[in-house]
Amino acid sequence: MKAEKPEIIVTGDGSKTLYLPVMNEHYHSSHGAIAESKHIFIDAGFKAMRGKACSLTILEMGFGTGLNALMTFLEARQSGKEKGKIHYVAAEAFPVEKELWTQLDYPVRFSDGDAGDIFVKMHECPWDLPFFISDDFVLNKLKADFSDLEFKDGSFDLVYFDAFAPDLQPELWSEEIFKRVFSAMRPGGVLVTYSAKGSVKRALQMAGFVVEGLPGPKGKREITRAVRPSVH
Ligand SMILES: C[S@@+](CC[C@H](N)C(=O)[O-])C[C@H]1O[C@@H](n2cnc3c(N)ncnc32)[C@H](O)[C@@H]1O
Q1: Mean pLDDT, to the nearest integer, of 191-201?
Q2: Please, what are the domains in the chain?
Q3: Best substitution site from 17, 27, 119, 176 to test ligand 1's pocket, by max atoms within 8 Å of Cβ?
Q4: Is 212's pLDDT higher than 80?
Q5: Could you report the per-residue pLDDT of 3-23, keeping only the tens digit for each?
Q6: What is the pLDDT at residue 229?
């Protein structure tokens, strides 16, 4: 995949996203960027795991605009310090340029007065080093092609799989990649993604996940949640 300069567009819920004209691909659903992120990654992923573990280690495939990271930070803080710390690892091969992320309106769409500072910190913190966004939230952005990354077995509780569409990047939605993600997850860990394509679900199953379809956000019938089964 080649890097291409994205354009900014406004989605159905009024929040902005990036659009790649040559690929005809959006970074988020055109029906609502914030609505999609909340429905899939926060509600079906983060909230489902938050009560179970004291601290959570999260892996995001595709940091992009930083929307999922920002929303996870805000949700984690709202759900309470006593629920534990967050270690958030995000891979990104084509970082979004400052000229673009500064035009995204995400921070003002949340009531947290410091959301803008958090968003800037998330974008401006160094790559390839763990960085304390707050005492309870460490962000480690990895500037790399996801296919080249190797993770220690059993590192992650939760995976946000947010690559471009399977038709555009079939190599990332493959059994081989999902097997690596499976090994990198702890037993009982959860992967969430917007794609409910049959081939994606089959690749996840072949990699060892137990796969379920959940109702999607506006404009999408179904999304996928996959669990690495616990060892008995
Ligand atoms: C659908 S967008 C989602 C972005 C992000 N989660 C967000 O909320 O803005 C997919 C992201 O994956 C990144 N990406 C695509 N191929 C990649 C690869 N091979 N390795 C790492 N990142 C990749 C893209 O640059 C883009 O930022």
Answers
A1: 98
A2: 33-227 (3.40.50.150)
A3: 27
A4: yes
A5: 678 999 999 999 999 999 999
A6: 96
36 pocket-lining for ligand 1 (C-beta < 6 Å)? no
**Cα 64 to ligand 1 centroid, rounded to whole Å:** 5
Is the Cβ atom of 92 under 6 angstroms away from ligand 1?
yes
Would the CB of 94 count as within 6 Å of ligand 1? yes
Phi, psi of 74 (to 5 degrees): -65, -40
Among the atoms of ligand 1, which is closest to the Cα of residue 25? 1
Q: What is the pLDDT of residues 142-174, one digit of tens each?
A: 999 999 999 999 999 999 999 999 999 999 999
Residue nearest to atom 27 of ligand 1 (CA): 64
pLDDT value of position 3: 67
User: Secondary structure of 10-23 in the HEC alphabet?
Assistant: ECCCCCEEEEECCC
